Amino acid sequence: DSVFAHLVRAPEDPILGVTLAYNKDPSPVKLNLGVGAYRTEEGKPLVLNVVRRVEQQLVNDLARNKEYLPITGVAEFNKLSAQLIFGADSPAIREGRVTTVQCLSGTGSLRVGGEFLAKHYHQRTIYLPQPTWGNHPKVFTLAGLTVKTYRYYAPATRGLDFQGLIEDLGAAPSGSVVLLHACAHNPTGVDPTPEQWEEIRKLIRSKALLPFFDSAYQGFASGSLDKDAQPVRSFVADGGELLMAQSYAKNMGLYGERVGALSIVCKSADVASKVESQLKLVIRPMYSSPPIHGATIVAAVLKDSNLFNEWTIELKGMADRIISMRQQLFDALRARGTPGDWSHIIKQIGMFTFTGLNSEQVSFMTKEYHIYMTSDGRISMAGLSAKTVPHLADAIHAAVT
Ligand SMILES: Cc1[nH+]cc(COP(=O)(O)O)c(/C=N/[C@@H](CC(=O)O)C(=O)O)c1O
């Protein structure tokens, strides 16, 4: 019999498996609020106009070919990605202290960064917020790091457990790596205030902890790319070092193109270039070089001021639609007199609402109302529309009464 006959059947991914279950459900009222992917009012995936425009230009450009990219990817894309998150006027970029490599979207950027740290950094422990994106622990464990957690979410207030965060990071061994969501924390939708970010930054620098930022929603938290990058820029401004994983999956709608970048901000240009040389030794045996199409689209949008402005308008449109879904769901629950305080729905930011519903209530809503969401009670607001809000509100009402 097969040499693989001994394999046990693996469980589906807690996030991506929700979509598989949704697809199997024949119900006409089913609702997919699982994966963090934007949907229009009509419930359809969105390809941004700027992306379509650029793709038209690319397909007609006979000067383009399908040659291998360098291991580090599209150079222009790397430069423009660093400017997008650190600011076009960033002193670190000007001083040549930033190295950026194109990776396979956010996940690939996190994995390459994790493998680089496991190989070259003296402290192999990374602290993840509790809770965090479900794939983080797996990515970093497989990269060779030891995963620990720091308190982040306070179920009682449905807000930030700032005291717990400070205590846990204060107790972390000096030099530990700390994963920070740059904005729009997944799954809680709870971000530190600017004042709290400043406290976090001071603590991290005072203990020589190494920040590893994950930016998968730049522009989705506030609707402004620059505003959402402020916390990151305050860390770069203090001259310290950090790692930064960027994803264009959500904010440019390039999910399946797998477009992302890993940047490492170093103390000197000389170190940055040595870091880049070692990053190439991580990437070459992993996937050799990244895909050409998506990064070319992003570079075209970022370097042309008209396309860039049109992108910011489309991005704000997506952010605003999500915010209106928050208000509509909150109003619908209030209209039903649904027991409990639901103000966190309008206070939380980014793509997700961390409802506070427990796994029994979630499975009740799936069974009785065909609502598909992750078992931790997270719902992707982008999956909602004005006409489906009442159905979700009915389901939540039934689940809590
Ligand atoms: C915080 C965070 N970081 C990185 C990623 C990776 O995205 P990538 O497509 O590799 O650029 C995601 C994706 N999150 C959504 C989709 C998923 O789970 O893959 C989600 O949480 O639903 C994140 O939420």
Give keywords.
alpha/beta; 401 residues; binds the ligand Cc1[nH+]cc(COP(=O)(O)O)c(/C=N/[C@@H](CC(=O)O)C(=O)O)c1O; two-stranded parallel ribbon
General description of the model:
The chain is an alpha/beta fold and 401 residues long. It is 45% helix and 14% strand. It has 16 helices and 13 strands. The protein has helices spanning 16-24, 49-60, 75-86, 91-94, 105-120, 136-143, 162-171, 194-206, 225-228, 230-237, 269-283, 292-303, 305-336, 344-347, 359-369, 389-400, and strands spanning 31-32, 98-104, 125-130, 146-151, 153-154, 159-160, 177-181, 210-215, 242-247, 259-265, 352-354, 371-372, 378-380. The strands form 4 sheets. Strands 2-10-9-8-7-3-4 form a 7-stranded mixed β-sheet. Strands 1-12 form a two-stranded parallel sheet. It has a two-stranded antiparallel sheet with strand order 5-6. It is globular and about 60 Å long. It starts with 15 loop residues before the first helix and ends with a helix. Bound molecules: ligand KET. The ligand Cc1[nH+]cc(COP(=O)(O)O)c(/C=N/[C@@H](CC(=O)O)C(=O)O)c1O binds next to helix 5.
Query: What's the overall geometry?
Result: globular
Q: Within the largest sheet, what's the order of strands?
A: 2-10-9-8-7-3-4
Mean pLDDT: 97
Instruction: Give the distinct bound molecules.
Output: the ligand Cc1[nH+]cc(COP(=O)(O)O)c(/C=N/[C@@H](CC(=O)O)C(=O)O)c1O
Structural category is alpha/beta
Rounded to an integer in angstroms, the radius of gyration calculated over CA atoms is 21 Å
User: Strand portion, in percent?
Assistant: 5-15%
Name the helix and strand elements from N-terminus to C-terminus, one letter apiece: HEHHHEHEHEEEHEHEHHEEHHHHEHEEH
Number of helices: 16
The level of helicity is 40-55%
Report on the biggest sheet.
7 strands, mixed
Uncertain segments of ≥5 residues (pLDDT<50)?
none
- Using DSSP, what is the number of strands? 13
What is the end-to-end distance?
53 Å
